[in-house]
Amino acid sequence: MPKHFLTILDIPKDEAKQVLLRAKEMKDNKVRTDLLAGKTLLLIFEKASTRTRVSFEVGVRQLGGDPVFITSKDSQLGRSEPLKDTARVLSRYADGLIVRTFGQEKLETLVEYGDIPVVNALTDEYHPCQIMADMLTMYERTPNLEDIKVAWVGDGNNMAHSFINGAVTFGYTLALACPEGYEPDKDILENAERLGAKIVTTRDPAEAVRGAHYVNTDVWASMGQEEEQKKREVAFAGFEVNAALMAGAADNAKFMHCLPVHRGEEVSEDVFESPASIVWDQAENRLHMQKAILEWIYK
Ligand code: CP
Ligand code: NVA
After folding, report:
1. pTM for this one?
2. CB-CB contact of 40 with 69 (8 Å)
3. 202, 207, 260, 291: most buried by Cβ count inside 10 Å?
């Protein structure tokens, strides 16, 4: 049976720590291997991407494999060839699918009808590769992740959902402040709580950030929600991460953002460009973590 990585919960807890340590080792020692020699990994992207696409393409090459990139615009996917057909065809050519798309159920269709590993490169529901890289970025500063508080300020979106799952696996306390109507999915939250995650939800960004070691946010309108931008700007008023909000966080607290950022919306320019901002390390760590995730799948 091929291994898939659709959400963080697909990696057993004890193995997740090993993946984290391996990503750190890959970073520190600039690891190159031939693990994927002779293997072709298809990147299928139905949404735009800079970091995820490039870090996967480079990462696959650094593990000796060949990445092939396609989009729905320039393939038959854009002309409604069903995913269940696409999955069976691509399984005959390639050794894995790295997929950025809309609904999570599309990945599940690829898993059901294909017979090669499927990796979630972002869906409307989750962004697990990003959060695994963010774990590395936090681990580098605070190795004891069980003892830290992570704040999420803004939309209860794919990033928030993956931070919720990350709280199950890595044991940090997560405080989420989301405006009314933009809370994370109830089932995802309840499932994480049932699995022992320490999570608090509030409407008050100051309460979520109080004493937090890491303060996270993301755009207010994700890919596919662009037409809601104006409506969301109204709903998210008061949810900007700015210097006043950061002042309530722990001493030496860090600001995090998966990027791309909308300066002056979800975060002020001064916080984004401040020494507390670790966004470029987050972006770099995508590469190291993609390699560790691929190793977890293919080793
Ligand atoms: N953070 C992230 O996934 O960036 P891209 O959309 O550029 O891949
Ligand atoms: N929530 C954002 C993340 C982008 C990396 C989106 O889905 O557009």
Report:
1. 0.98
2. no
3. 291
